[in-house]
Fold UDP-N-acetylmuramoyl-L-alanyl-D-glutamate--2,6-diaminopimelate ligase.
Amino acid sequence: MKVLKDILYKVSINAVVGDTGIAINAIHFDSRKIGNGDLFVAVKGTVSDGHSFIEKAIELKAVAVICENLPEILIDGVTYVQVDNSNSALAILASNFYGFPSENLKLIGVTGTNGKTTVASLLYQLFKSAGYKVGLLSTVKILVDNIEYKATHTTPDSLTINKYLKEMNDEGVEFCFMEVSSHGIHQCRTEGLLFEGGIFTNLSHDHLDYHNTFAEYRDVKKTFFDELSENAFALVNVDDKNGLVMLQNTKAKKYTYALKSYADYKAQILENQFGGLLLKVNDSEVWTKLIGNFNAYNVLAIYATAELLGLEKVEVLRLVSDLESVSGRFQYLISDDKITAIVDYAHTPDALKNVLETINSIRTKNEELITVVGCGGDRDKTKRPKMGHIATELSTKVIFTSDNPRSEDPDEILKDIEKGVEPQNYKKSLTIVDRAQAIKTACQLAQPNDIILIAGKGHESYQEINGERFDFNDYKTVQEFLKQLQK
Ligand SMILES: CC(=O)N[C@H]1[C@@H](OP(=O)(O)OP(=O)(O)OC[C@H]2O[C@@H](n3ccc(=O)[nH]c3=O)[C@H](O)[C@@H]2O)O[C@H](CO)[C@@H](O)[C@@H]1O[C@H](C)C(=O)N[C@@H](C)C(=O)N[C@H](CCC(=O)O)C(=O)O
Ligand SMILES: Nc1ncnc2c1ncn2[C@@H]1O[C@H](COP(=O)(O)OP(=O)(O)OP(=O)(O)O)[C@@H](O)[C@H]1O
Protein backbone atom coordinates (compact mmCIF):
# COMPACT_ATOMS: atom_id res chain seq x y z
CA MET A 1 0.00 0.00 0.00
CA LYS A 2 1.28 3.46 -0.91
CA VAL A 3 -0.26 6.92 -0.55
CA LEU A 4 -1.21 8.52 -3.88
CA LYS A 5 0.54 11.81 -3.22
CA ASP A 6 3.82 9.96 -2.54
CA ILE A 7 3.70 8.03 -5.78
CA LEU A 8 2.93 11.27 -7.66
CA TYR A 9 6.39 12.58 -6.64
CA LYS A 10 8.06 14.26 -9.66
CA VAL A 11 5.08 13.51 -11.96
CA SER A 12 4.33 16.58 -14.06
CA ILE A 13 0.67 17.29 -13.19
CA ASN A 14 -1.81 19.61 -14.93
CA ALA A 15 -4.82 19.22 -12.62
CA VAL A 16 -6.05 17.16 -9.68
CA VAL A 17 -9.69 16.48 -8.81
CA GLY A 18 -10.17 14.66 -5.50
CA ASP A 19 -8.07 13.52 -2.58
CA THR A 20 -4.40 12.55 -3.08
CA GLY A 21 -4.11 11.27 0.49
CA ILE A 22 -5.76 7.95 -0.41
CA ALA A 23 -4.02 4.58 -0.29
CA ILE A 24 -3.16 2.80 -3.57
CA ASN A 25 -3.02 -0.94 -3.70
CA ALA A 26 -1.53 -1.47 -7.18
CA ILE A 27 -1.05 0.40 -10.48
CA HIS A 28 -2.38 -0.86 -13.85
CA PHE A 29 -2.62 0.55 -17.38
CA ASP A 30 -4.96 -2.25 -18.45
CA SER A 31 -8.48 -1.89 -17.04
CA ARG A 32 -8.92 -5.67 -17.13
CA LYS A 33 -6.34 -6.06 -14.38
CA ILE A 34 -7.88 -3.51 -11.99
CA GLY A 35 -8.89 -4.63 -8.49
CA ASN A 36 -10.23 -2.90 -5.38
CA GLY A 37 -8.14 0.15 -4.37
CA ASP A 38 -6.01 0.28 -7.54
CA LEU A 39 -4.82 3.20 -9.65
CA PHE A 40 -5.69 3.10 -13.37
CA VAL A 41 -3.42 4.88 -15.86
CA ALA A 42 -5.23 5.63 -19.13
CA VAL A 43 -2.76 5.31 -22.02
CA LYS A 44 -3.51 6.16 -25.66
CA GLY A 45 -2.61 3.12 -27.77
CA THR A 46 -2.54 2.41 -31.49
CA VAL A 47 -5.60 0.15 -31.46
CA SER A 48 -7.67 1.71 -28.70
CA ASP A 49 -7.52 4.55 -26.22
CA GLY A 50 -7.16 3.66 -22.54
CA HIS A 51 -9.35 6.69 -21.73
CA SER A 52 -12.35 4.77 -23.01
CA PHE A 53 -11.78 2.17 -20.27
CA ILE A 54 -11.82 4.61 -17.32
CA GLU A 55 -15.46 3.81 -16.55
CA LYS A 56 -14.73 0.07 -16.66
CA ALA A 57 -11.75 0.56 -14.30
CA ILE A 58 -13.93 2.44 -11.81
CA GLU A 59 -16.58 -0.29 -12.01
CA LEU A 60 -13.81 -2.70 -11.00
CA LYS A 61 -13.13 -0.43 -7.96
CA ALA A 62 -10.23 1.74 -9.13
CA VAL A 63 -9.91 4.60 -6.62
CA ALA A 64 -7.75 6.89 -8.74
CA VAL A 65 -7.21 7.60 -12.43
CA ILE A 66 -4.28 9.18 -14.28
CA CYS A 67 -5.34 10.56 -17.65
CA GLU A 68 -4.46 13.08 -20.34
CA ASN A 69 -8.10 14.24 -20.70
CA LEU A 70 -10.50 14.38 -17.78
CA PRO A 71 -13.74 12.44 -18.40
CA GLU A 72 -16.90 14.57 -18.79
CA ILE A 73 -18.57 12.89 -15.84
CA LEU A 74 -16.45 12.60 -12.71
CA ILE A 75 -17.39 10.00 -10.12
CA ASP A 76 -17.47 11.00 -6.45
CA GLY A 77 -14.85 9.29 -4.32
CA VAL A 78 -12.48 8.77 -7.25
CA THR A 79 -9.34 10.94 -7.58
CA TYR A 80 -8.48 12.14 -11.10
CA VAL A 81 -5.00 13.38 -12.01
CA GLN A 82 -4.55 15.03 -15.37
CA VAL A 83 -1.08 14.83 -17.01
CA ASP A 84 0.39 15.70 -20.44
CA ASN A 85 1.73 12.25 -21.19
CA SER A 86 0.32 9.18 -19.43
CA ASN A 87 3.19 6.92 -20.53
CA SER A 88 5.73 9.27 -19.02
CA ALA A 89 3.66 9.62 -15.82
CA LEU A 90 3.33 5.81 -15.63
CA ALA A 91 7.11 5.38 -15.68
CA ILE A 92 7.66 7.90 -12.86
CA LEU A 93 4.76 6.44 -10.82
CA ALA A 94 6.17 2.95 -11.26
CA SER A 95 9.59 4.00 -10.04
CA ASN A 96 8.05 5.80 -7.02
CA PHE A 97 5.71 2.91 -6.26
CA TYR A 98 8.54 0.36 -6.12
CA GLY A 99 10.90 2.67 -4.15
CA PHE A 100 13.35 3.82 -6.90
CA PRO A 101 14.79 0.33 -7.45
CA SER A 102 17.13 1.40 -10.28
CA GLU A 103 19.04 3.51 -7.75
CA ASN A 104 19.90 0.48 -5.63
CA LEU A 105 21.88 -1.40 -8.29
CA LYS A 106 24.05 -0.58 -11.31
CA LEU A 107 21.77 -0.59 -14.34
CA ILE A 108 23.28 -0.75 -17.82
CA GLY A 109 21.13 -0.30 -20.93
CA VAL A 110 22.08 -1.77 -24.30
CA THR A 111 20.53 -0.22 -27.38
CA GLY A 112 21.01 -0.51 -31.15
CA THR A 113 19.43 -2.44 -34.01
CA ASN A 114 21.47 -5.65 -33.58
CA GLY A 115 23.44 -7.18 -30.77
CA LYS A 116 21.33 -6.02 -27.80
CA THR A 117 20.43 -9.54 -26.63
CA THR A 118 23.93 -10.87 -27.27
CA VAL A 119 25.70 -8.05 -25.41
CA ALA A 120 23.25 -7.92 -22.47
CA SER A 121 23.17 -11.73 -22.05
CA LEU A 122 26.95 -12.10 -22.28
CA LEU A 123 27.45 -9.30 -19.75
CA TYR A 124 25.07 -11.16 -17.42
CA GLN A 125 27.12 -14.35 -17.98
CA LEU A 126 30.43 -12.55 -17.41
CA PHE A 127 29.42 -10.79 -14.19
CA LYS A 128 27.87 -14.03 -12.86
CA SER A 129 31.17 -15.81 -13.50
CA ALA A 130 32.94 -12.98 -11.71
CA GLY A 131 30.90 -13.91 -8.63
CA TYR A 132 28.31 -11.11 -8.56
CA LYS A 133 24.54 -11.30 -8.20
CA VAL A 134 23.24 -10.15 -11.56
CA GLY A 135 19.95 -9.29 -13.29
CA LEU A 136 19.00 -9.49 -16.96
CA LEU A 137 16.04 -7.98 -18.82
CA SER A 138 16.25 -9.37 -22.35
CA THR A 139 14.15 -10.53 -25.30
CA VAL A 140 15.01 -14.15 -24.51
CA LYS A 141 14.45 -14.19 -20.77
CA ILE A 142 14.36 -12.23 -17.56
CA LEU A 143 16.74 -13.26 -14.81
CA VAL A 144 16.69 -12.08 -11.23
CA ASP A 145 20.07 -13.57 -10.47
CA ASN A 146 19.24 -17.31 -10.79
CA ILE A 147 15.45 -16.96 -10.90
CA GLU A 148 14.18 -17.11 -14.48
CA TYR A 149 11.00 -15.51 -15.87
CA LYS A 150 9.56 -15.59 -19.37
CA ALA A 151 10.18 -12.46 -21.41
CA THR A 152 7.39 -11.02 -23.54
CA HIS A 153 9.17 -7.97 -24.88
CA THR A 154 12.64 -6.64 -25.56
CA THR A 155 11.98 -3.80 -23.12
CA PRO A 156 8.98 -4.49 -20.87
CA ASP A 157 6.54 -1.74 -19.86
CA SER A 158 7.73 0.58 -17.08
CA LEU A 159 5.66 -1.12 -14.36
CA THR A 160 7.15 -4.50 -15.19
CA ILE A 161 10.69 -3.12 -15.36
CA ASN A 162 10.39 -1.53 -11.93
CA LYS A 163 8.73 -4.62 -10.47
CA TYR A 164 11.67 -6.81 -11.56
CA LEU A 165 14.23 -4.21 -10.45
CA LYS A 166 12.58 -4.20 -7.01
CA GLU A 167 12.79 -7.98 -6.90
CA MET A 168 16.48 -7.66 -7.86
CA ASN A 169 16.96 -5.25 -4.94
CA ASP A 170 15.36 -7.79 -2.61
CA GLU A 171 17.69 -10.53 -3.93
CA GLY A 172 20.77 -8.33 -3.47
CA VAL A 173 21.50 -8.00 -7.20
CA GLU A 174 24.39 -5.58 -7.85
CA PHE A 175 24.39 -5.25 -11.65
CA CYS A 176 21.48 -5.41 -14.08
CA PHE A 177 21.89 -5.49 -17.86
CA MET A 178 18.84 -4.58 -19.89
CA GLU A 179 17.94 -4.25 -23.56
CA VAL A 180 16.54 -0.87 -24.50
CA SER A 181 14.42 -0.97 -27.67
CA SER A 182 13.40 2.08 -29.67
CA HIS A 183 9.72 1.25 -28.96
CA GLY A 184 10.62 1.22 -25.26
CA ILE A 185 12.29 4.63 -25.40
CA HIS A 186 9.48 6.11 -27.51
CA GLN A 187 6.81 4.83 -25.12
CA CYS A 188 8.78 6.18 -22.10
CA ARG A 189 9.23 2.67 -20.67
CA THR A 190 12.74 3.56 -19.43
CA GLU A 191 11.92 7.06 -18.21
CA GLY A 192 12.89 7.83 -14.61
CA LEU A 193 15.36 4.93 -14.41
CA LEU A 194 18.86 5.71 -13.17
CA PHE A 195 21.37 4.18 -15.57
CA GLU A 196 25.02 3.58 -14.70
CA GLY A 197 25.82 3.20 -18.37
CA GLY A 198 24.45 3.02 -21.89
CA ILE A 199 25.86 1.01 -24.79
CA PHE A 200 25.16 1.68 -28.48
CA THR A 201 25.85 -1.27 -30.79
CA ASN A 202 24.77 -0.08 -34.26
CA LEU A 203 21.87 1.32 -36.23
CA SER A 204 20.40 0.00 -39.45
CA HIS A 205 17.12 -0.29 -41.31
CA ASP A 206 14.50 -1.69 -38.90
CA HIS A 207 11.17 -0.90 -37.26
CA LEU A 208 10.24 1.65 -39.93
CA ASP A 209 6.68 0.36 -39.61
CA TYR A 210 6.67 2.00 -36.17
CA HIS A 211 9.05 4.96 -36.61
CA ASN A 212 8.15 6.72 -39.83
CA THR A 213 11.65 7.51 -41.02
CA PHE A 214 15.19 6.38 -40.32
CA ALA A 215 15.95 9.84 -38.88
CA GLU A 216 13.08 9.47 -36.41
CA TYR A 217 14.29 5.99 -35.43
CA ARG A 218 17.84 7.36 -34.89
CA ASP A 219 16.61 10.35 -32.88
CA VAL A 220 14.55 8.13 -30.59
CA LYS A 221 17.66 6.02 -29.87
CA LYS A 222 19.61 9.21 -29.25
CA THR A 223 17.23 10.43 -26.52
CA PHE A 224 18.33 7.46 -24.41
CA PHE A 225 21.89 8.88 -24.37
CA ASP A 226 20.65 12.48 -23.99
CA GLU A 227 18.99 11.46 -20.73
CA LEU A 228 21.95 9.67 -19.11
CA SER A 229 23.34 11.45 -16.03
CA GLU A 230 26.83 12.95 -15.77
CA ASN A 231 27.88 10.04 -13.52
CA ALA A 232 26.97 7.46 -16.14
CA PHE A 233 29.08 6.25 -19.06
CA ALA A 234 28.03 6.21 -22.71
CA LEU A 235 29.90 3.61 -24.73
CA VAL A 236 29.34 3.69 -28.49
CA ASN A 237 30.50 1.86 -31.58
CA VAL A 238 32.08 4.56 -33.74
CA ASP A 239 32.49 2.30 -36.78
CA ASP A 240 28.75 2.89 -37.10
CA LYS A 241 28.14 6.28 -38.67
CA ASN A 242 25.55 7.10 -36.01
CA GLY A 243 27.83 6.27 -33.08
CA LEU A 244 29.06 9.82 -32.58
CA VAL A 245 25.52 11.17 -33.09
CA MET A 246 24.52 9.27 -29.93
CA LEU A 247 27.19 11.17 -27.97
CA GLN A 248 26.31 14.65 -29.24
CA ASN A 249 24.11 15.83 -26.38
CA THR A 250 24.87 13.43 -23.59
CA LYS A 251 26.11 14.55 -20.19
CA ALA A 252 27.53 11.07 -19.55
CA LYS A 253 31.25 10.22 -19.73
CA LYS A 254 31.95 9.33 -23.36
CA TYR A 255 33.77 6.19 -24.50
CA THR A 256 34.13 4.72 -27.97
CA TYR A 257 34.92 1.30 -29.43
CA ALA A 258 35.74 0.25 -32.98
CA LEU A 259 37.55 -2.16 -35.26
CA LYS A 260 38.20 0.38 -38.02
CA SER A 261 37.99 3.90 -36.59
CA TYR A 262 40.06 5.65 -33.94
CA ALA A 263 38.54 4.67 -30.55
CA ASP A 264 39.20 4.32 -26.82
CA TYR A 265 38.77 0.58 -27.21
CA LYS A 266 40.25 -0.29 -30.57
CA ALA A 267 40.43 -3.90 -31.70
CA GLN A 268 42.02 -5.81 -34.51
CA ILE A 269 40.93 -9.30 -35.54
CA LEU A 270 43.96 -11.60 -35.46
CA GLU A 271 42.10 -14.89 -36.07
CA ASN A 272 38.49 -15.65 -37.07
CA GLN A 273 37.45 -19.28 -37.61
CA PHE A 274 34.90 -21.90 -36.47
CA GLY A 275 36.26 -22.44 -32.96
CA GLY A 276 37.01 -18.88 -31.93
CA LEU A 277 38.11 -15.31 -32.45
CA LEU A 278 41.40 -13.79 -31.41
CA LEU A 279 41.33 -10.02 -30.99
CA LYS A 280 43.96 -7.48 -30.12
CA VAL A 281 42.24 -4.87 -27.95
CA ASN A 282 44.56 -1.91 -27.37
CA ASP A 283 47.61 -3.76 -25.98
CA SER A 284 45.93 -7.01 -24.91
CA GLU A 285 45.14 -10.19 -26.80
CA VAL A 286 41.57 -11.30 -26.16
CA TRP A 287 40.42 -14.80 -27.12
CA THR A 288 36.76 -15.86 -27.30
CA LYS A 289 34.83 -18.95 -28.38
CA LEU A 290 32.33 -16.69 -30.15
CA ILE A 291 32.94 -16.30 -33.86
CA GLY A 292 32.38 -13.81 -36.64
CA ASN A 293 33.01 -10.12 -37.23
CA PHE A 294 29.85 -8.98 -35.48
CA ASN A 295 30.85 -10.88 -32.38
CA ALA A 296 34.18 -9.06 -32.46
CA TYR A 297 32.13 -5.88 -31.92
CA ASN A 298 30.01 -7.52 -29.23
CA VAL A 299 33.05 -8.86 -27.37
CA LEU A 300 34.70 -5.47 -27.61
CA ALA A 301 31.63 -3.77 -26.08
CA ILE A 302 31.57 -6.38 -23.30
CA TYR A 303 35.29 -6.05 -22.61
CA ALA A 304 35.02 -2.25 -22.40
CA THR A 305 31.90 -2.37 -20.20
CA ALA A 306 33.50 -4.81 -17.77
CA GLU A 307 36.49 -2.48 -17.42
CA LEU A 308 34.30 0.61 -17.07
CA LEU A 309 32.38 -1.16 -14.31
CA GLY A 310 35.63 -1.71 -12.43
CA LEU A 311 36.68 -5.29 -13.13
CA GLU A 312 40.43 -5.97 -13.33
CA LYS A 313 41.80 -6.34 -16.87
CA VAL A 314 43.37 -9.75 -16.22
CA GLU A 315 40.09 -11.04 -14.82
CA VAL A 316 38.14 -9.64 -17.79
CA LEU A 317 40.46 -11.43 -20.25
CA ARG A 318 39.88 -14.73 -18.46
CA LEU A 319 36.10 -14.25 -18.19
CA VAL A 320 35.73 -13.29 -21.87
CA SER A 321 37.52 -16.47 -22.93
CA ASP A 322 34.93 -18.53 -21.01
CA LEU A 323 31.82 -16.93 -22.55
CA GLU A 324 29.39 -19.35 -24.24
CA SER A 325 27.24 -18.30 -27.22
CA VAL A 326 23.71 -17.11 -26.54
CA SER A 327 20.83 -19.43 -27.51
CA GLY A 328 19.76 -18.84 -31.14
CA ARG A 329 22.56 -16.34 -31.75
CA PHE A 330 24.99 -18.00 -34.15
CA GLN A 331 24.35 -21.27 -32.30
CA TYR A 332 25.80 -24.16 -34.25
CA LEU A 333 26.04 -27.93 -34.34
CA ILE A 334 28.06 -30.29 -36.53
CA SER A 335 26.27 -33.56 -37.37
CA ASP A 336 27.95 -36.97 -37.40
CA ASP A 337 28.20 -36.75 -41.18
CA LYS A 338 29.91 -33.34 -40.88
CA ILE A 339 27.06 -31.08 -41.91
CA THR A 340 27.20 -27.77 -40.01
CA ALA A 341 23.85 -26.24 -39.06
CA ILE A 342 23.75 -22.69 -37.72
CA VAL A 343 20.65 -21.24 -36.07
CA ASP A 344 20.58 -17.47 -35.95
CA TYR A 345 18.02 -14.87 -34.98
CA ALA A 346 18.98 -12.58 -37.89
CA HIS A 347 15.62 -11.14 -38.95
CA THR A 348 16.71 -7.83 -40.47
CA PRO A 349 18.47 -7.30 -43.79
CA ASP A 350 21.58 -6.04 -42.04
CA ALA A 351 21.74 -8.93 -39.56
CA LEU A 352 21.19 -11.50 -42.34
CA LYS A 353 23.97 -9.91 -44.40
CA ASN A 354 26.26 -9.94 -41.38
CA VAL A 355 25.62 -13.60 -40.63
CA LEU A 356 26.07 -14.69 -44.25
CA GLU A 357 29.23 -12.61 -44.62
CA THR A 358 30.51 -14.10 -41.39
CA ILE A 359 29.91 -17.64 -42.64
CA ASN A 360 31.43 -16.83 -46.03
CA SER A 361 34.51 -15.36 -44.37
CA ILE A 362 35.03 -18.56 -42.40
CA ARG A 363 34.05 -21.28 -44.92
CA THR A 364 36.43 -22.72 -47.53
CA LYS A 365 34.01 -22.10 -50.46
CA ASN A 366 34.09 -25.72 -51.66
CA GLU A 367 30.89 -26.48 -49.75
CA GLU A 368 27.31 -25.41 -50.31
CA LEU A 369 25.84 -22.74 -48.07
CA ILE A 370 22.10 -23.46 -47.86
CA THR A 371 20.04 -20.70 -46.24
CA VAL A 372 16.52 -21.23 -44.89
CA VAL A 373 14.82 -17.91 -44.23
CA GLY A 374 11.50 -16.02 -44.14
CA CYS A 375 10.06 -12.75 -42.84
CA GLY A 376 7.51 -12.12 -40.10
CA GLY A 377 3.96 -10.99 -40.83
CA ASP A 378 2.44 -7.74 -39.46
CA ARG A 379 5.90 -6.14 -39.38
CA ASP A 380 7.95 -3.84 -41.64
CA LYS A 381 7.21 -5.04 -45.20
CA THR A 382 10.03 -3.09 -46.86
CA LYS A 383 12.63 -5.46 -45.48
CA ARG A 384 11.18 -8.51 -47.28
CA PRO A 385 12.65 -8.04 -50.82
CA LYS A 386 15.89 -6.85 -49.24
CA MET A 387 16.20 -10.10 -47.31
CA GLY A 388 15.33 -12.12 -50.44
CA HIS A 389 18.07 -10.28 -52.30
CA ILE A 390 20.71 -10.71 -49.60
CA ALA A 391 19.95 -14.40 -49.01
CA THR A 392 20.30 -15.33 -52.68
CA GLU A 393 23.36 -13.13 -53.31
CA LEU A 394 25.32 -14.55 -50.38
CA SER A 395 24.29 -18.26 -50.35
CA THR A 396 24.69 -21.03 -52.88
CA LYS A 397 21.11 -22.28 -52.30
CA VAL A 398 18.14 -20.66 -50.56
CA ILE A 399 14.87 -22.04 -49.29
CA PHE A 400 12.34 -19.31 -48.56
CA THR A 401 9.86 -20.31 -45.91
CA SER A 402 7.49 -18.92 -43.28
CA ASP A 403 8.81 -17.11 -40.23
CA ASN A 404 5.94 -16.00 -37.94
CA PRO A 405 3.23 -15.09 -40.49
CA ARG A 406 1.03 -13.87 -37.63
CA SER A 407 -2.23 -12.61 -39.16
CA GLU A 408 -0.86 -12.35 -42.73
CA ASP A 409 -1.18 -14.86 -45.58
CA PRO A 410 2.20 -16.72 -45.65
CA ASP A 411 2.13 -16.98 -49.47
CA GLU A 412 1.83 -13.20 -49.81
CA ILE A 413 4.83 -12.65 -47.51
CA LEU A 414 6.85 -15.12 -49.57
CA LYS A 415 5.90 -13.31 -52.79
CA ASP A 416 7.21 -10.06 -51.29
CA ILE A 417 10.50 -11.76 -50.40
CA GLU A 418 10.86 -13.32 -53.88
CA LYS A 419 10.57 -9.85 -55.46
CA GLY A 420 14.10 -9.11 -54.23
CA VAL A 421 15.70 -12.07 -56.05
CA GLU A 422 17.75 -11.09 -59.13
CA PRO A 423 17.00 -13.11 -62.32
CA GLN A 424 20.47 -14.71 -62.30
CA ASN A 425 19.67 -16.12 -58.83
CA TYR A 426 16.23 -17.58 -59.66
CA LYS A 427 17.69 -21.09 -60.01
CA LYS A 428 19.29 -20.88 -56.57
CA SER A 429 16.05 -20.52 -54.68
CA LEU A 430 12.93 -22.50 -53.93
CA THR A 431 9.96 -21.75 -51.71
CA ILE A 432 8.46 -24.14 -49.15
CA VAL A 433 5.77 -22.57 -46.98
CA ASP A 434 5.98 -25.11 -44.16
CA ARG A 435 9.06 -24.28 -42.03
CA ALA A 436 9.68 -27.85 -40.81
CA GLN A 437 9.48 -29.13 -44.39
CA ALA A 438 11.87 -26.39 -45.53
CA ILE A 439 14.42 -27.36 -42.86
CA LYS A 440 14.01 -31.04 -43.75
CA THR A 441 14.64 -30.27 -47.43
CA ALA A 442 17.79 -28.32 -46.53
CA CYS A 443 19.01 -31.36 -44.57
CA GLN A 444 18.23 -33.64 -47.53
CA LEU A 445 20.09 -31.36 -49.96
CA ALA A 446 23.14 -30.99 -47.72
CA GLN A 447 26.18 -33.18 -48.25
CA PRO A 448 29.04 -33.70 -45.78
CA ASN A 449 30.93 -30.43 -45.11
CA ASP A 450 28.02 -28.29 -46.34
CA ILE A 451 26.63 -25.52 -44.13
CA ILE A 452 22.95 -24.87 -43.41
CA LEU A 453 21.92 -21.50 -42.02
CA ILE A 454 18.45 -21.27 -40.50
CA ALA A 455 17.78 -17.60 -39.97
CA GLY A 456 15.13 -15.42 -38.37
CA LYS A 457 13.72 -17.19 -35.32
CA GLY A 458 16.79 -18.02 -33.23
CA HIS A 459 15.79 -19.06 -29.73
CA GLU A 460 12.01 -18.86 -30.27
CA SER A 461 10.10 -21.93 -29.14
CA TYR A 462 7.00 -21.31 -31.23
CA GLN A 463 5.73 -20.33 -34.67
CA GLU A 464 2.83 -17.89 -34.81
CA ILE A 465 0.41 -18.68 -37.63
CA ASN A 466 -2.98 -17.04 -37.93
CA GLY A 467 -2.78 -15.65 -34.43
CA GLU A 468 -2.05 -19.07 -32.92
CA ARG A 469 1.29 -20.15 -31.46
CA PHE A 470 2.51 -23.67 -32.29
CA ASP A 471 5.54 -25.32 -30.63
CA PHE A 472 8.53 -24.93 -32.90
CA ASN A 473 12.26 -24.61 -32.39
CA ASP A 474 14.73 -24.29 -35.27
CA TYR A 475 17.66 -25.82 -33.38
CA LYS A 476 15.76 -28.92 -32.23
CA THR A 477 14.13 -29.35 -35.67
CA VAL A 478 17.40 -29.29 -37.60
CA GLN A 479 19.13 -31.45 -35.01
CA GLU A 480 16.43 -34.14 -35.34
CA PHE A 481 16.31 -34.10 -39.16
CA LEU A 482 20.10 -34.32 -39.43
CA LYS A 483 20.04 -37.36 -37.16
CA GLN A 484 17.15 -39.02 -39.04
CA LEU A 485 18.62 -38.36 -42.46
CA GLN A 486 22.21 -39.28 -41.65
CA LYS A 487 23.98 -40.00 -44.96
C1 LIG B 1 2.82 -1.49 -31.27
C2 LIG B 1 3.02 -1.03 -29.87
O1 LIG B 1 4.09 -0.62 -29.51
N1 LIG B 1 1.95 -1.17 -29.07
C3 LIG B 1 1.90 -0.55 -27.74
C4 LIG B 1 0.59 0.14 -27.59
O2 LIG B 1 -0.35 -0.89 -27.63
P1 LIG B 1 -1.64 -0.74 -28.45
O3 LIG B 1 -1.56 0.53 -29.21
O4 LIG B 1 -1.90 -1.97 -29.21
O5 LIG B 1 -2.66 -0.68 -27.22
P2 LIG B 1 -4.19 -0.72 -27.35
O6 LIG B 1 -4.65 -2.12 -27.46
O7 LIG B 1 -4.55 0.25 -28.40
O8 LIG B 1 -4.65 -0.21 -25.91
C5 LIG B 1 -4.39 1.09 -25.43
C6 LIG B 1 -4.41 1.05 -23.94
O9 LIG B 1 -5.69 0.61 -23.49
C7 LIG B 1 -5.53 -0.40 -22.54
N2 LIG B 1 -6.72 -1.27 -22.55
C8 LIG B 1 -7.00 -2.02 -23.63
C9 LIG B 1 -8.12 -2.86 -23.62
C10 LIG B 1 -8.94 -2.93 -22.47
O10 LIG B 1 -9.94 -3.65 -22.37
N3 LIG B 1 -8.59 -2.15 -21.41
C11 LIG B 1 -7.50 -1.34 -21.41
O11 LIG B 1 -7.24 -0.68 -20.42
C12 LIG B 1 -4.25 -1.11 -22.90
O12 LIG B 1 -3.68 -1.78 -21.81
C13 LIG B 1 -3.39 0.07 -23.35
O13 LIG B 1 -2.74 0.65 -22.25
O14 LIG B 1 0.48 0.80 -26.37
C14 LIG B 1 0.59 -0.08 -25.26
C15 LIG B 1 0.51 0.76 -24.00
O15 LIG B 1 1.52 1.69 -23.94
C16 LIG B 1 1.94 -0.83 -25.34
O16 LIG B 1 2.03 -1.73 -24.29
C17 LIG B 1 2.04 -1.57 -26.67
O17 LIG B 1 3.24 -2.19 -26.85
C18 LIG B 1 3.11 -3.56 -26.93
C19 LIG B 1 3.49 -4.07 -25.55
C20 LIG B 1 4.01 -4.20 -28.01
O18 LIG B 1 3.88 -5.37 -28.28
N4 LIG B 1 4.97 -3.51 -28.59
C21 LIG B 1 6.00 -4.10 -29.47
C22 LIG B 1 5.85 -3.75 -30.91
C23 LIG B 1 7.32 -3.62 -28.92
O19 LIG B 1 7.33 -2.78 -28.03
N5 LIG B 1 8.45 -4.17 -29.38
C24 LIG B 1 9.74 -3.75 -28.87
C25 LIG B 1 10.97 -4.24 -29.55
C26 LIG B 1 10.89 -4.88 -30.84
C27 LIG B 1 12.23 -5.32 -31.38
O20 LIG B 1 13.31 -4.77 -31.04
O21 LIG B 1 12.17 -6.25 -32.19
C28 LIG B 1 9.90 -4.29 -27.46
O22 LIG B 1 10.56 -3.60 -26.68
O23 LIG B 1 9.47 -5.42 -27.21
N1 LIG C 1 26.88 -6.41 -33.08
C1 LIG C 1 26.16 -6.92 -34.06
N2 LIG C 1 26.11 -6.33 -35.26
C2 LIG C 1 25.39 -6.82 -36.26
N3 LIG C 1 24.70 -7.96 -36.17
C3 LIG C 1 24.70 -8.61 -35.00
C4 LIG C 1 25.43 -8.13 -33.88
N4 LIG C 1 25.26 -8.98 -32.86
C5 LIG C 1 24.45 -9.93 -33.29
N5 LIG C 1 24.11 -9.73 -34.59
C6 LIG C 1 23.24 -10.50 -35.45
O1 LIG C 1 21.91 -10.08 -35.19
C7 LIG C 1 21.13 -11.16 -34.66
C8 LIG C 1 20.32 -10.64 -33.50
O2 LIG C 1 21.21 -10.44 -32.44
P1 LIG C 1 20.67 -10.01 -31.04
O3 LIG C 1 19.50 -10.83 -30.70
O4 LIG C 1 21.80 -9.96 -30.10
O5 LIG C 1 20.20 -8.54 -31.42
P2 LIG C 1 19.04 -7.68 -30.79
O6 LIG C 1 19.51 -6.27 -30.92
O7 LIG C 1 18.75 -8.15 -29.44
O8 LIG C 1 17.83 -7.91 -31.72
P3 LIG C 1 16.28 -8.10 -31.26
O9 LIG C 1 15.90 -6.95 -30.39
O10 LIG C 1 15.60 -8.08 -32.56
O11 LIG C 1 16.31 -9.37 -30.51
C9 LIG C 1 22.16 -12.21 -34.24
O12 LIG C 1 21.66 -13.49 -34.27
C10 LIG C 1 23.28 -11.97 -35.20
O13 LIG C 1 23.00 -12.59 -36.41
The pocket of UAG (ligand 1) is lined by residues 29-32, 43, 45-48, 50, 53, 87, 153-155, 157, 181, 183-184, 187 (CB under 6 Å).
